[in-house]
């Protein structure tokens, strides 16, 4: 009889029997007295979000206003969240600043001559969809984790590139090759696009007033771009924090949080973050959750380790980087010996199998064997072959 492999191997997940373990999730029960479904508009085209034509169920309002997910505008296809959206007061119909922490509170919009309080409506969500939502949120957070690390690596490589003078020379070369339209010095767009005409324009582009005006305009555009990017980053940090809380605020999921969210979490529990990287902050939070001494207090006491749970780990560890795998180990209070990617994954596999070994041995020892007598009407029983052992 073929038996399925009990130990989990990340390269062979089909040989592992996943057991359903029901974990109780924290839920909030409240009434909708004095609550409204506030009007939400797209920050780009000002179109109303959540209309029936969009095909979104009513409970998507709960998910959106809790900053668990971002949605696309049906008019301009812009993806935005509750913090970057235009939120209107249900009483005065004016815009107000919304915070996802206010979803279960009654607030005022803060506009002049409007002192009425209001809450945010909570629609009913089925248990089945909520279960699927938790799986979807975890996958989305893992993808966001990979995207965030890729952007940070790209920004780090970009900071090592040439200085401003060399960048201007590169921009001028691109201008001569018709790869950019505006002159990198004055910002004008010449009518004649021939190489001779563009070269002549650069040779005679010596007006300092035009240069300063164009540089000022570029700085303003850069500041506006940074402000928009700051709102997006703030939205993503809040989204990772709220998704982590919605998934149960488990210690084993701390690797999903961004560095800014981890720093805020450390400040809430009075943990110093000076000079600490992401994995150090995770280790300090994990140590405090386990009632251990912090890494920064000079204690020689080692951190207590929590068991690796297959359900808390990503489905494909091979797609993660070394730093992300180290973050997962830090969540469990485990310091891997290996420095390579495959070595760390092997250690995590061994820890998962060790955690399940005692349970599996107990299950195997408690299996009962039943003796069944075969029906033999023609001959008497003369050997042990007439007995069949069923497991």
By DSSP (H or I, 4+ residues per run), the number of helices equals: 9
Radius of gyration, in Å, reads: 30 Å
| Global outline | globular
**E-strand count:** 9
- Taken as a percent bin, the fraction of beta residues is 5-15%
Task: Give the structural class.
Answer: mainly alpha
Within the largest sheet, what's the order of strands?
Answer: 2-5-6
Averaged pLDDT: 80
Could you estimate the helical fraction of the residues in percent? Answer: 40-55%
Element string (H = helix, E = strand): EEHEEEEEHHHHHHHHEE
- End-to-end Cα distance, whole Å, is 10 Å
Largest sheet: 3 strands, antiparallel
Spans of at least 5 consecutive residues whose pLDDT stays below 50 are 1-6, 18-22, 292-302, 366-391
How would you describe this structure to a colleague?
It is a single chain. The chain is mainly α. Among the domains are: 32-158, no CATH class; 250-374 and 385-391, no CATH class. Helix content is 40%, strand content 6%. It has helices at residues 60-65, 127-159, 164-176, 195-203, 208-246, 259-268, 278-289, 322-331, 341-365, and strands at 35-36, 39-41, 71-72, 79-80, 86-88, 95-96, 119-120, 370-373, 387-390. The strands form 4 sheets. The protein has a 3-stranded antiparallel sheet, with no helix packed on it. Helix 7 (278-289) runs parallel beside helix 8 (322-331) and helix 8 crosses helix 9 (341-365). It is globular and about 75 Å long. The N and C termini lie close together (10 Å). Residues 1-6, 18-22, 292-302 and 366-391 have low confidence and may be disordered.
């Amino acid at each position: 009889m073929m038996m399925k492999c009990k130990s989990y191997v990340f390269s062979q997940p089909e040989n592992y029997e996943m057991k359903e373990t029901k974990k109780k999730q924290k839920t909030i029960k409240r009434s909708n007295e004095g609550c409204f479904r506030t009007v939400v508009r797209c920050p780009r085209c000002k179109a109303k979000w959540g209309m029936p034509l969009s095909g979104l169920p009513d409970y998507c309002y709960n998910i959106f206003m809790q900053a668990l997910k971002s949605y696309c505008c049906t008019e301009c296809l812009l993806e935005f969240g509750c913090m970057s959206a235009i939120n209107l007061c249900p009483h005065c119909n004016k815009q107000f600043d919304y915070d996802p922490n206010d979803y279960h509170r009654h607030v005022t919009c803060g506009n002049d001559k409007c002192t009425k309080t209001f809450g945010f409506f909570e629609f009913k969500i089925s248990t089945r969809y909520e279960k699927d939502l938790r799986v979807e949120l975890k996958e989305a957070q893992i993808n966001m984790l990979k995207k965030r690390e890729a952007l940070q690596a790209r920004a780090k490589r970009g900071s090592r590139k040439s200085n401003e003078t060399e960048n201007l020379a590169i921009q001028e070369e691109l201008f001569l090759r018709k790869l950019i339209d505006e002159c990198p010095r004055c910002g004008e767009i010449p009518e004649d696009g021939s190489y001779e005409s563009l070269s002549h324009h650069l040779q005679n582009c010596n007006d300092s007033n035009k240069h300063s005006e164009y540089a000022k305009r570029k700085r303003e555009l850069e500041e506006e771009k940074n402000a928009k990017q700051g709102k997006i980053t703030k939205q993503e940090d809040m989204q990772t924090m709220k998704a982590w809380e919605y998934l149960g605020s488990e210690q084993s999921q701390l690797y999903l949080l961004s560095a800014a969210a981890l720093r805020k979490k450390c400040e809430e529990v009075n943990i110093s973050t000076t000079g600490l990287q992401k994995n150090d902050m995770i280790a300090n939070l994990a140590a405090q959750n386990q009632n251990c001494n912090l890494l920064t207090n000079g204690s020689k006491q080692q951190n207590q380790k929590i068991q690796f749970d297959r359900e808390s780990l990503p489905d494909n560890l091979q797609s993660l980087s070394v730093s992300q795998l180290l973050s997962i180990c830090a969540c469990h209070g485990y310091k891997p010996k290996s420095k390579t990617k495959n070595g760390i994954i092997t250690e995590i596999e061994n820890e998962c199998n060790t955690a399940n070994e005692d349970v599996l041995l107990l299950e195997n020892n408690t299996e009962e064997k039943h003796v069944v007598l075969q029906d033999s009407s023609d001959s008497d029983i003369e050997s042990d072959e007439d007995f069949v052992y069923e497991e």
